[in-house]
Design goal:
This protein is mainly alpha-helical and 436 residues long. It has one domain. It has 20 helices and four strands. The strands form two sheets. The protein has a two-stranded antiparallel ribbon. The protein is globular. The two termini are 40 Å apart.
């Protein structure tokens, strides 16, 4: 029954895409991925920098005298190494940490914090002979292409061709789409959440339940689907099966919890393990940004000019959002290229503004899901990588698509800036520079 529903869903999606539309989406995917490949495989090895060495939390993450060379390994840094260990060695976690009758954490980065679907898919490809690097990259890129195709078809039906094209361009070229080509879960999560929302809105509840369960076994924010779709079902006065469909989506998380209980005698091991990733406070982030600006050692009058420019562009952003966003992007381009920490402040601000400004133009299911996603991220305190998580909020891409469709010249400027940062971040990631 599930397979039949999925087949009907895929066929209905295919019927919404004409050949020229498919070619447009495919070109957006291919060209943006080509930029990443050029940055990692050609530019990064040619950059003359000192070798990289660091040691995080003992043997959790070690890099000694690293210099990038041509090869697939450049796509598997940071979280990719955790997924490599999961696939090759299995999950690890120490559950017998007690002192004075209380359980405590040793703050090590146990890989049980990473949800199982993505490494499971990689493992399946490795069983047919593919090495980890190629299997992980293949899954990420194929999932991202699937995401763009489904998202285009959905947005095209809701808003029309122009907004669908701009939305696809935004999602493909946004700098943090870099992670959709790495051994990360971004593309898999985007594919499953967008497909779940699409099926649920079209009353394909069995398919939505199945895809939702996969989403909740991919990343913790997948849980957002449950309250968001319950509220959407109530607003739309959907039948009882819609509520049951949303509730069943928790099955992926429940299955992972049962595994943790069986393996480590701790059903919430994946939650307790999060303590290994120390999260900064908003005050810490602001303090680091101030220190970075002061380290530039510019005269005081230049700092005042910078503040005036930023405030002026914020005002322009609210009065004339198209050109405000373009001018802000041009001015902030060297800032974003200088240090990734600026995105940790700018991305939440942009997300809140987009959701509020376009609240009347976004469809109910996108608006509700986007708002719940924002609340989840702020409540869980994932500030260190909040910019990367915010990229996976599909309504943000739709909001920018609506904006650029009405102001295409501003859109061309913004997409060009996105492409530059995408290339720049690709080079930095290949050098083990932390991007998110």
């Amino acid at each position: 029954m599930v397979a039949k529903k999925l087949k009907l869903y895929l066929s209905s999606t295919q019927s919404l895409l004409k050949l020229d539309e498919f070619l447009f989406v495919f070109c957006m995917w291919l060209l943006s991925r080509l930029i990443i490949t050029i940055g990692m495989q050609l530019i990064a090895p040619a950059v003359n920098l000192p070798p990289i060495s660091f040691d995080l939390l003992g043997d959790t993450q070690q890099v000694k005298n690293f210099v990038p060379h041509l090869g697939w390994e450049l796509f598997t840094h940071w979280d990719g190494e955790h997924y490599r260990n999961i696939v090759t060695k299995g999950y690890n976690y120490t559950s017998d940490l007690f002192y004075g009758g209380y359980r405590y954490s040793d703050n090590r980065q146990y890989n049980i914090a990473f949800f199982p679907l993505y490494p499971l898919l990689v493992k399946l490809l490795m069983l047919i002979g593919l090495p980890f690097d190629i299997a992980g990259i293949l899954i990420s890129n194929v999932c991202f292409l699937g995401t763009l195709l489904i998202f285009y078809a959905w947005i095209n039906r809701m808003y029309g061709r122009s907004i669908a094209r701009w939305t696809t361009a935004v999602m493909a070229w946004f700098p943090l789409s870099l992670f959709c080509s790495l051994t990360y879960t971004e593309s898999c999560f985007l594919l499953l959440t967008i497909a779940t929302l699409f099926c649920f809105e079209n009353r394909q509840y069995i398919a939505a339940s199945f895809l939702g369960m996969l989403a909740t076994s991919t990343r913790p924010p997948g849980l957002v689907l449950i309250p968001a779709l319950l509220l959407f079902a109530w607003v739309e006065r959907r039948p009882l099966i819609a509520y049951l469909s949303a509730i069943v989506m928790a099955g992926g998380l429940i299955a992972f919890s049962v595994f943790c209980w069986y393996k480590f005698d701790q059903p919430f091991a994946f939650v307790l393990a999060q303590s290994g990733w120390q999260q900064p406070s908003w005050f810490d982030i602001l303090k680091d940004i101030v220190n970075l600006v002061l380290d530039l050692k510019l005269p005081m009058y230049l700092h005042v000019v910078m503040v005036i420019i930023i405030v002026t562009n914020l005002i322009l952003l609210f009065l004339r959002p198209a050109w405000g966003s373009s001018m802000a992007g041009i001015i902030l381009l060297p800032v974003l290229a200088y240090h990734i920490i600026f995105l940790q402040i700018l991305m939440p601000m942009m997300a809140i503004w987009l959701m509020w400004y376009f609240r009347q133009k976004l469809s109910p299911i996108l608006l509700i899901y986007g708002c719940f996603f924002l609340v989840f991220l702020f409540l869980t305190g994932t500030k260190m990588s909040i910019h990367r998580h915010l990229y996976t909020i599909a309504p943000m891409s739709v909001a920018l698509g609506i904006l650029f469709s009405a102001h295409p010249r501003a859109g061309y400027i913004s997409i060009s800036l996105f492409g530059f940062l995408l290339l720049f971040y690709s080079v930095r990631f290949a050098w083990w520079d932390w991007i998110g």
